[in-house]
Amino acid sequence: EAMKPYLDGIERERNEGEACPTKLRDDDIFEQNQYPSMLPTGSKSQLFNFCPSSAPSTSPQDHSPKLFITTTDNVLSKAFTDAGAELGLANHIFNPARYTIRNGIRWSSYHEYLRPAFGRANLHVLTNSVVQRIIFDETKRAVGVAVADSVDGTVIVINALREVILSAGAFQTPQLLKLSGVGPAAELKRHNVPLVHDAPQLGQNLFDHLNLPLYVSINASASVTLNKIANLHSIYNYLKHGTGVFSST
């Protein structure tokens, strides 16, 4: 259950925070940022298309930009989800894999948000640029960013009129905050980074998900094989209809 990259909006019988390892310190930061606190924001930005055979769609019926998330609907997915019910486990403990795929192609924030905004006069995309640090004022409010040209090294400062949104992934987000003076005070001091705010938990408790592969033999033609991929029928279905094995990877 901990291996879910997206918030699905299904009622949980327990907080997902309870599944975290015990090495996480049970301080105020952790207590205030468990699964329920993230759910409203996740629901606004994601549109789910559940497999109809396993669960009804709980997606809001609106047309606002959302990251399209879907699951596969095949005999193998149904077998795994049905197995959970047979074992008497709570609903949706066993889940099919989720994909950001729409109409047969991978669907990212670029497709849903950035590409439609290319025509806006207030959008400017800097290429060949690396953000060096976030600039804070005396009240610790982010007011801009320092950006370096990756070609000639020229550094410019971009001041924010409203807000600075930091979205650099699981690795670069804490890294950039630390370079900006936000993070564990002792670590920043060791690297001669001026302290803006002491945040002991920032960049801590990173761990990878454990994956346990299971190999089984079944009396059904449900698996993906080279013969199913390397044939004209599969290629035609994908190019013509956006369906088939090529549309679910």
From TrEMBL:
It comes from the Eukaryota. It holds the Pfam family GMC_oxred_N. Residues 169-183 form the Glucose-methanol-choline oxidoreductase N-terminal domain. One of its GO terms (molecular function) is oxidoreductase activity, acting on CH-OH group of donors. Belongs to the GMC oxidoreductase family. PANTHER family: GLUCOSE-METHANOL-CHOLINE GMC OXIDOREDUCTASE, NEITHER INACTIVATION NOR AFTERPOTENTIAL PROTEIN G. This is Oxygen-dependent choline dehydrogenase.
